[in-house]
Amino acid sequence: MKILVLCSGGDAPGMNRFLYTFSRKNKNQIYYAKAGFKGLVENEIFALDKKAVEKSKNEAGCVIFSSRYPQFKEEKYFKKAVKNIQDFDLVVIMGGNGSEKGAKELFENGINTIFVPATIDNDVINSSYSIGFDTAVSQCVYTVQNTMPSIRAFRQALLLEVMGNETAFIAERVAKEVQADYLIKEKDDIAFTKISKIVKENYRNDKGALIIVKEKVKNVFQIEKELREKGIDARSQIVGRLQRGGKPTKFEIEMADKFAKSVLLLLKEKIAGKRILVDESNNFCVKDL
Ligand code: F6P
Q: pLDDT tens-digit profile of 90-120?
């Protein structure tokens, strides 16, 4: 069998691990499309280098590259991709909701695809887990643990911006794990009087304050400025790419392995047109695309 793998959208720690476990004992011919759907369209398709995959198995990043490629929705590009991959028996696609749509479209156009949720945002519909989330959260927790001692020393308030795109899964999980004093996950949460009260109370008790801010709600430096105008000694920090570049956690490795094994099971039974999902109890299941 000829199999093609690709990663699309924001890279997620654990993508490399999936590639390793999926390809390790796989006797089929495995290829990859460089930088996701872009590689399909531009016919940048190469044999998977198992040595490179083995080397990166516990690292973040994406050894076969990823990209955002909205052009894939356009008919002329989509048709080109379909033409380029006619001789593949299976295409395994890792990414978020947009990538899942791509997998479904390809399947409806005669290409056997399987979709694997992989995005730090953990916002894949109907899956309680996507590869990358645990590492992203743990990188934020690490940032809090290594920033707050200095913030506390000055009894300041830290505004920590975390990723998540349009969803607040990372922000909510981090706020819970580090017991943040306040969480801004939507515009209505920017209540300066309420925030000032919390921070000032902490100050009176000789404590610093931690406010988690979900990205894309409002510029964190602007929030900082407005808090300072209200007499709060606030400092902003953006966790940023640390969330995607962090070494995959133990849990991440386990989950990536399980995703890979789920795809291998489908492969054995020659089943495609599916997406691998995780339910609330962390059980793996398979649903139609
Ligand atoms: O989808 C993953 C993600 O990290 C989002 O959380 C974030 O909004 C976006 O990608 C940022 O992407 P980039 O760093 O490419 O702008």
A: 999 999 999 999 999 999 999 999 999 999 9
